[in-house]
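$ fold --in a.seq
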Amino acid sequence: MNRLSCNFFFFFLIYLLPVLVHAAALDSLKTFIQETRTARATFSQILLDRNSKIIQKSSGIMQFERPNKFRWTYEKPYEQLIVGDGIQVWFYDRDLNQVTIRTLDLAIGSSPAALLAGNSTIEANFSLTEMGQQDQLEWLEASPKNKESTFEFIQLGFSMKGSLKIMVLRDSFGQTTLLTFSNLDKNPNLPASLFHFIPPDGSDVISD
């Protein structure tokens, strides 16, 4: 898997202890999906190895339009772009001048992108478990039903007002990623051009 693919599929993670169980986080997730057709937010991302040692820190801007269109722009430490147009997903590494193309189903199947930009049928791809309240956030864990998924679980933290603040993920290699959102804007007007990508001239294009 190339560096950009790793960034995309290793979005999110933190270690959490279950506490009181109730339906607040599940309700927040369903409300978020039902009421949020488009979204824009800045994010910071930390990737940890199996020993909780920081491998990489990055940041950028996340935008999506339901269903299945999204744009993740990594601005630091190096410029990368992930664009989902509803049919394909384009991974662009500016430093390497390399583009990797995957079909939507192959690229995001049971992934964080499926939760954020997918349709409302979450239970079809994920088993959802309430984790209770911690650090003034309501937590929910989503376990992919597809046994071939590259993720063990995804965890989502919502504020008491139902705003998505944190996503967390552990992958099948024991690496964990923490993604923190800020300045989340619900239902902004997003131009259609955001979700289209044309490989730059001279770039190395790879189709999986």
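$ fold --in b.seq
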Amino acid sequence: MKYRRLGKTDLKVSVVGVGTWQFGGDWGKDFKQSEVDAILDKAQDVGINLIDTAECYGPHHLSESFIGDYLSRHNREDWVIASKFGHHWEEEWSHAWKVDDVNKQLDDSLKALQTDYIDLYQFHSGADEDFDNDDLWTMLDKEMQAGKIRNLGISIGSNQNIYQTKQATDRNASAIQVVYNRLQQEPEDEVFPSCLEQDLGVLARVPLASGFLSGKYHPGVKFEDKVRSRRDQEEIDIQLKMVEQIKAREVPEGVDMAKWALAWCLKHDAVSCVIPGCKSPEQVEMNAAAADLDIVSDDHPSTWK
């Protein structure tokens, strides 16, 4: 495993992390605690130290609760925990951007995660009008001073949201999370240059394009999970045809396409860590192997072996 500094923070993060949206049940599988334990055990075995989650990944902080149960039986200091705020899911899913709501979300997340602090607490895909709330950021700064939050981040909802990205330093945020993969390269235009200028860490989410870049699917496939089944079938088929062309033209013979797709993201100087989801220890091990591909350079400005 290789490690990179997360922007201007003192966090040293594995270049491959564990995304945990799937623990909430939206990706076609309901997890048991034993299955989450096996995934996180394998992650630690292969050198992964970053877990990315959110308060709305499953009802009642479900994903965070799985992680918290695991952390309660392991060394908290071994892990970099990144979570998010701004949405709420109990009986139904809703936005929650008021200062008091976010303050409660923070306390509820800490309780679910069974920890005293969150390493990276991220504004979660909110509108610019929600972002432009000085009282919110003042409250978050106070919670940093209180030790509940170690660092702030911004998970931008649009790949081209340069408005929020440019204000990161002024908001005391040290990292940006954005969708970035071989099919979605928009962050390279404005977001990444701004991140490099401000020395912001970058977490690349959806690095496998919702599984499209795994190489497992072909045009005509019908998805049944809650996330991909909502997408237009024509759009799915167009993207999967693009994936077939990418595999034929760009992926070296004998190289697993999923590993290649993760390594492709990591070759950009702005990217600190990719956070693919995973449903099994075997997928964790496969994801981690991307760090060893030749296109993941040791010369990245913030890489340690």
